[in-house]
Structures are given as structure tokens and as C-alpha cells.
Specification:
220 residues; alpha+beta; Alpha-Beta Plaits; five-stranded antiparallel β-sheet; 5 helices; 11 strands; globular
Length: 220
């Protein structure tokens, strides 16, 4: 899977709060999947109340073997009756339904009970396609109906952004509608990133737009 590099563990205090990159999962053929914390990100996150991921309390240790099994519990079980709907929303081929690393990357391991996300560092290769939800919406208060599914969005690199050196601002008809999440944004800075396109995949709105899922793909 050349399109997926490392997967980064992200944590934030709550909705609308700043994201902190606190850990990384690495996979290779020799050692399998390893997980370790990132000291710089952890120190910043501690200021917001971060402690650790419950099953991995030692911030100085590298975990292997069980790491992917633990994080994989966040993924919908393949035997569930609605698994095909799940795979369809995230646009995942059924051939990957048992690949926990791939599924964790593609679905972000989102869980409504906590504030962790798993953000993959993608590469802009041919046929790349992934979903992400835009950051920064809580500050924009976009009115319901500002966007619709299928709208193609524009993007602008913001390398001097003080919060993310790989910041990517997303817009629609001249209006800002959010930012690409940390880590996911890095693909736009790589060679070939200028060929990427962004389309609205799904919306959560009630008075204002609360969440925007977008599809990022290579514009062939």
C-alpha cells in the first residue's frame, strides 16, 4: 500500500480544541506494526490534560505485537450486518476488510466516546482516494445549505500558518469552509499534490454545518 505511510495518533481536549500529534504507528515487513509516543507532541498535549492511551500507559516505551490489535478494536467488526455500508461510506475495497492497519488509516479509528483520531500520512500516487473531515468548522459557523454533497472545493497552501506548517485552507466560491486536518494535509505539499481534488462526501448540519466529510483524490 504505497499510498499509506505512517499513521499518527492524534488527541485533543474536546470539540473545537487544538489537535496534538502524540504518537505514531509504523509498519514494515520485518517488525510488523510498532507504536511509540512522540515526546514533543505529548509535552504539548499534557498542557491540555493528556495522560496516555489507556492500554499503553508507558510514554517512553515502544509497543509492538499487541498495538495493532488494541487499536483495531476501534474498527467495525467484519461480521456485522452493516459492514458493507461502512466500507461503502469510507470507499474501502472489500479486499481490505481484514487489514487492520489499512482500515485504521482509512477510517481514522473514530470513536464518539473519546477524542483520539488516527491520521495517515498519504502519498499522492495514481488512484489515491481517502476521506477526511475538515477542521476549523466550530469557528466558522457556516449556515446550513452553504454546501451540498458533490460540491468541488478549492484549496490553498498556508505554509506560514502558526499552528500547522503543512496547513491547507479549503474554500468554496471564495468562502473559507475549513482546513484539511493535520497529517492529512501533508499530502498536498508532496510532489503531485497539486493534482489533488476535494469533493464534499457528506454533511452533518442542523442550523449550521457541524461536520464536512470530503473525498480527496488524484485529479487524473
Amino acid at each position: 500500500m504505497k499510498e499509506i505511510g505512517h499513521i499518527y495518533l492524534c488527541w485533543r481536549k474536546g470539540l473545537g480544541e487544538r489537535r496534538h500529534i502524540v504518537g505514531v504507528l509504523r509498519r514494515n515487513a520485518t517488525d510488523g506494526v510498532r507504536f511509540s509516543y512522540l515526546k514533543k507532541g505529548v509535552e504539548k498535549a499534557k498542557q491540555d490534560g493528556f495522560n496516555s492511551y489507556t492500554e499503553f500507559p508507558d510514554l517512553s516505551k515502544e509497543y509492538n505485537g499487541s498495538a495493532l490489535d488494541v487499536f483495531g478494536q476501534r474498527i467495525m467488526k467484519s461480521e456485522r450486518s452493516d459492514i458493507n455500508d461502512f466500507l461503502s461510506f469510507w470507499e474501502i475495497s472489500p479486499k481490505y476488510k481484514d487489514d487492520k492497519y489499512y482500515l485504521l488509516a482509512r477510517t481514522q479509528g473514530l470513536n464518539p466516546s473519546d477524542n483520539f483520531e488516527f491520521l495517515a500520512d498519504y502519498n499522492p500516487i495514481k488512484d489515491l482516494c481517502f476521506l477526511t473531515d475538515l477542521a476549523g468548522l466550530s469557528k466558522l459557523n457556516l449556515p446550513k445549505g452553504s454546501l451540498k454533497v458533490g460540491d468541488e472545493l478549492s484549496f490553498e497552501l498556508e505554509p506560514n500558518n502558526p499552528y500547522d506548517e503543512f496547513a491547507v485552507k479549503v474554500g468554496f466560491k471564495g468562502q473559507q469552509v475549513g482546513y484539511i486536518k493535520k497529517i492529512h494535509s501533508k499530502v498536498f505539499y508532496k510532489s503531485g499534490g497539486e493534482k489533488l481534488k476535494i469533493k464534499v462526501k457528506a454533511l452533518d448540519q442542523n442550523g449550521i454545518i457541524k461536520r464536512i466529510f470530503v473525498k480527496v483524490s488524484v485529479n487524473s
